[in-house]
Design goal:
By secondary structure, the chain is of the alpha+beta class. Helices cover 16% and strands 35% of the residues.
């Protein structure tokens, strides 16, 4: 049933290609025998208006499907239906369909063409040409127009015979509303080929052997699409939906465990396992008394079973009606690992799930399981389980999603079958042909976050309910979704850091492990490359544009080398530079005039080396050695139209130099430096002493020392005009103190993202990340799990705010903040 809603949605667009008197079912006898789709409308003008004014349908106007159908509409442009009208689509070739229109003949049937109106008045039952590429026939006061002359010939050939004799179709047809914008009918026997035509790249066929007929009334407004109707299953046939026969729907719970980052989720419910099993035996045409399934007692303890489709993997979910019974059935499993205090077990399920629930659910063969509350999770890989567990604990699930609530409000609480898809995941685009994917690539469906399909078993039919709704621009999820948990091959030694991807203007992640391997990871969690280095990176990885073409390189130092790597992890010649003596500070990069004419500064204890962008030593820089060890990476600042380079020594001496390394400001007093590097504040240079006192030096070299908001052991971060200090359980932001929970915290970090600044700290005792705005207000739904400093930024170009942090000893966590 996966992707079934795509079919229904596509068929809504079908109606755009093609009426008010009293409805009549007498037209159905002229429907082609093998019509795959029939669309009924009682007000053609109203339908066309609704289609033109629906945002979602117009968003898809560039697609080949839409254009083909608009072309089909032009074939019948001279016909003016008045009242009940049928549009029929009959398969012609591999990906082609004949289109037919059936409606009552009337005096104004043809628009503005006196000859056609005169011919119509004659009621001559012969086939005539319409517009050069179509044909029509007026037969017994009924107009039948078609792109196929053969279909019209069949009408005449079978005179006085009911061409259309299908009891289930008549049942479906009479269930439709005469007041709906349109009603759509899909023939089950033609469903497989229809699905293949629309979605050639789909690996499974959602309409194959599913039902006999489906009927759905379409409700369109400017933003939303809703469908309601029935699905009919022929008795004694092997149709997938027959597995739900005589079951009672149960309240769906699966949305409470499904991450908001999931691509899709599907589930079935049953109140009685034995009844479901009986329907399965009937489906297989087996004697129930002799039909046995492995793990039956486990499946009998579930009321809902489904599959969560994640970007990387799938997770089977069973909702237990009695966790004691379910737990006993899984008691033989052996514990493999623990994640966030949830045990993960190894289990040999074989193909038990697949055999029990196919073909209505296409389930995998899991080897691992975990339980959390009354949810039992089964998967083939541990990462998928961890993703679901993490998002459940973070409350980043569909049931907590503001963007899903709009869709959820249209659904019944209980259903026999449920399918929910994230339109933002763009997974539906991959089902299209190669040409179709190129067109869909630029279609964003902004505001359309989810689509949902429900089937509810009644006595001898299933109620159908589907919705694709547009959320208001202000509707966003105030939650945090874990979108990736990347396991490295060794323990992490460097705090994960966001870097800019110049191809997408989004962010990627760099991180290094204990084996000195550097990794570049996409914002979706894919390891793009690994690079072995000769040591641990000092400080942060920086980015430069050596060739001034917008393509960024990574620049950094290890104790032995200065590296520049391109986007693919390749060394940029003539780098790396190797050094005999140890490098003792992170790389400093000066770009005096913001023109990418870089100066690279290397510190070796008390020595200073400067190189140009071509890795040549800059002989004009005369400051080559300090009197004692240099405390921080040298920094470049500009005040007015003058450049200043600051170098602080362990002895307390502060050098403020010009571009050539000569003294620009002579600071005579010594400073008892703390951990805060020199920074510019207004027209002054500032830092903090080891005792937390603020030191300020003006451009004349005058030094003033004053009491600050910070104490001796405060951890301080400063960027622009934002000053943050952390001591014990006090967080001070620009002089305002806030109490936080006691713990062992990392130093605060400040990230500037767009026009906003964010403050991040991590309690390493409780493994909790806290992110605040620039006023010190904690963002909603924090704290969240993490074990290292967090780096905040836009994961995609100017949107999708997120952050990266460390999880376990060898795992990188990427979160999206809504």
């Amino acid at each position: 049933m996966k992707s079934f809603f795509y079919i229904l949605f596509s068929l809504i667009i079908l109606a755009s290609c093609d009426t008010k008197p009293k409805a009549s079912s007498s037209l159905t006898k002229y429907i082609p025998r093998k019509a795959a789709v029939v669309i009924k409308t009682n007000d053609f003008k109203d339908l066309k208006s609704a289609l033109v004014n629906n945002d979602l349908i117009q968003e898809l106007a560039p697609t080949a499907l839409y254009k083909t159908l608009v072309k089909g509409q032009t074939l019948f442009k001279d016909i003016q239906p008045d009242g009940e009208t049928l549009l029929c689509y009959t398969k012609l070739g591999r990906n082609d369909y004949d289109i037919s229109m059936i409606t009552k003949a009337h005096a104004s049937l043809f628009k503005g063409d006196s000859l056609l109106m005169k011919e119509a008045a004659l009621k001559d039952p012969t086939i005539k040409t319409l517009g050069g590429t179509a044909h029509y026939l007026i037969y017994k006061d009924v107009l039948i127009a078609s792109t196929s002359k053969i279909l019209l010939e069949n009408v005449l050939r079978e005179d006085n015979t009911d061409i259309y004799e299908d009891d289930l179709f008549e049942k479906a047809y009479t269930s439709s509303s005469n007041s709906a914008t349109a009603s759509i009918f899909i023939r089950g026997s033609e469903g497989a080929s229809l699905y293949k035509s629309l979605f050639p790249n789909a690996t499974a066929n959602a309409l194959k052997n599913s039902f006999s007929w489906t009927a759905a009334d379409v409700d369109l407004d400017n933003n939303d699409i809703r469908l309601s109707g029935v699905a009919l299953v022929q008795d004694s046939t092997s149709q997938r939906l027959s597995l739900l026969k005589d079951t009672q729907p149960v309240v769906n719970r699966i949305a409470s465990i499904t991450p908001t980052a999931a691509i899709a989720v599907e589930a079935i419910t049953y109140d009685d396992w034995q009844q479901f099993k009986s329907s399965k035996a009937d489906f297989l045409k087996l004697d129930l008394s002799k039909y046995t399934l492995a793990r039956e007692d486990l499946f009998a303890s579930f009321s809902e079973v489904g599959m969560i489709h994640l970007p990387k993997g799938k997770v089977i979910v069973g909702v237990s009606t009695d966790i004691t019974v379910t737990g006993n059935e899984l008691a033989s499993a052996s514990e493999k690992a623990e994640f966030r205090k949830v045990s993960i077990y190894e289990i040999n399920m074989g193909s038990a799930f697949a055999k029990a629930y196919s073909p209505i659910l296409n389930l995998s063969s899991p080897t691992l399981y975990a339980s959390i509350d009354d949810f039992y999770l089964f998967a083939e890989n541990q990462e998928s389980l961890e993703t679901v567990i993490a998002n459940y604990q973070n409350k980043a699930t569909l049931s907590n999603s503001a963007t899903f609530q709009n869709t959820e409000s249209t659904l019944s609480r209980a259903s026999s079958y449920l399918y929910i898809s994230s339109l933002g995941s763009n997974a539906f685009k991959e089902l299209a042909s190669e040409d179709g994917q190129k067109v869909l690539k630029d279609i964003t469906l902004d505001g359309y976050d989810y689509s949902a399909l429900q089937l509810i078993q009644e006595k001898d039919y299933l109620l159908l309910n589907m919705a694709i709704l547009k959320n208001d621009e202000a509707t966003t999820d105030a939650n945090i979704a874990q979108i990736a948990n990347v396991k490295l091959s060794a323990d992490i030694t460097m705090t994960p850091q966001l870097v800019t991807n110049h191809r997408t203007n989004g962010k990627d992640v760099v991180v290094q492990d204990i084996n000195n391997t550097l990794y570049l990871i996409s914002n979706a969690g894919k390891v793009l490359w690994q690079k072995d280095l000769d040591g641990q990176i000092l400080g942060n990885v920086q980015q430069i544009d050596l060739y001034r073409n917008g393509r960024l390189q990574l620049a950094f130092t290890t104790p032995s080398s200065f590296y520049v790597l391109d986007r693919n992890g390749k060394e940029v010649s003539p780098y790396p530079l190797s050094f005999k003596d140890n490098i003792t500070q992170p790389l400093s990069i000066f770009d005096y005039d913001n023109n990418s004419n870089y100066r690279f500064v290397i510190v070796q204890n008390d020595k200073v080396l400067m190189y140009d962008k071509n890795a040549k030593a800059v002989s004009g820089f005369t400051f080559t050695e300090a009197g004692s060890a240099i405390l921080y990476p040298p920094a470049h600042m500009r005040i007015g139209n003058k450049d200043y380079i600051t170098i602080a020594e362990n002895s307390g001496k502060l050098h403020i130099l010009n571009r050539t390394g000569k003294t620009r400001i002579d600071v005579k007093e010594k400073i008892n430096f703390g951990d805060t590097p020199i920074y510019k504040y207004g027209n002054n240079f500032e830092t903090f002493t080891v005792n937390g006192e603020k030191v300020s030096i003006n451009t004349s070299g005058k030094l003033t020392q004053s009491i600050s908001d910070f104490q001796s052991d405060s951890k301080i971060a400063i960027e622009d005009k934002l000053k943050v200090g952390l001591r014990e359980n006090n967080l001070v932001v620009n002089g305002k103190k806030r109490e936080i929970a006691f713990g062992t915290y990392t130093s605060p970090s400040i990230s500037s993202t767009g026009k906003s600044q964010y403050i991040a700290i991590t309690n390493t005792e409780s493994s909790e990340v806290y992110i605040y705005d620039n006023k010190g207000v904690l963002l909603p739904n924090f704290p969240i799990y993490g074990t290292s400093k967090a780096d905040v930024g836009f994961l995609r170009s100017n949107k999708s705010l997120g952050f990266v942090t460390q999880g376990g000893s060898n795992s990188v966590l990427i979160y999206k903040i809504n």
